[in-house]
Amino acid sequence: MSNAAWRTSTYSNGDEGDCVEVADGVAGLVPVRDSKVEGGPVLVVSAAAWGPFVAALKAG
Q1: N or C terminus: fewer CB in 10 A for the chain?
Q2: What pLDDT is recorded for position 60?
Q3: Looking at residue 45, what is its pLDDT?
Q4: Secondary structure (3-state) at 49
């Protein structure tokens, strides 16, 4: 994760509530974490699974 460039998801709210960060720069993977807990756990999803996951969330 040392090369990860964290950014707040555009789907996170701006009220310091439910904020998710994703990291760029990790080949083939999409690391995800809670923006309020920078040193906390990181969920790592394959890049191939990330697209369908986001599409399913958008579809409700």
Answers
A1: C
A2: 83
A3: 95
A4: helix
Structure tokens, 11: 């789907």
Residue 23 token pair:
């990291």
3-state secondary structure of 8: strand
* DSSP summary character for residue 19: -
Task: Spell out the SS3 assignment of 21-33.
Answer: EEEECCCCEEEEE
Closest CA to 34 of 11, 18, 46, 45: 18
Rounded to two decimals, what is the model's pTM? Answer: 0.75
Say which residues have a Cβ less than 8 Å from residue 30's Cβ, sequence separation at least 6: 22, 23, 44, 45, 46, 47, 50
